[in-house]
Amino acid sequence: VPDGNVPVDSVFSFQLKIYGDVFIDGKSTVVAQGYFGGEVLNCPAPGSRRE
Questions:
Q1: N or C end of the chain: which has fewer CB within 10 A?
Q2: What's the pLDDT score for residue 11?
Q3: What is the enclosing helix (H) or strand (E) of 5?
Q4: Residue 3 phi/psi, 5° resolution?
Q5: pTM to 2 decimals?
Q6: What is the pLDDT of residues 2-47, one digit of tens each?
């Protein structure tokens, strides 16, 4: 999915949906923000378990 063409809401919701399964806490938002910004390394330990 190319950046810029797709609204942030769509991408954000998509990331939240993916990480929502792993993070049943409010941390899903943090992971989504980190992933969207390219700072995936800044995500919590459970983030490494993304299959």
A1: C
A2: 52
A3: none
A4: -80, 150
A5: 0.13
A6: 555 545 555 554 444 444 444 444 444 444 444 444 444 444 545 4
Cβ contact 24:32 at 8 Å: no
Enclosing H/E stretch for 28? helix 27-37
Cα 47 from Cα 41, distance rounded (Å): 9
Rounded Cα gap, residues 27 and 47, in angstroms: 10
Q: Which long-range contacts (CB under 8 A, 24 or more apart) does 39-48 make?
A: 46/22, 47/19, 47/22
E-strand spans in the chain?
Answer: none
Q: Provide the 3-class DSSP secondary structure of residue 3.
A: strand
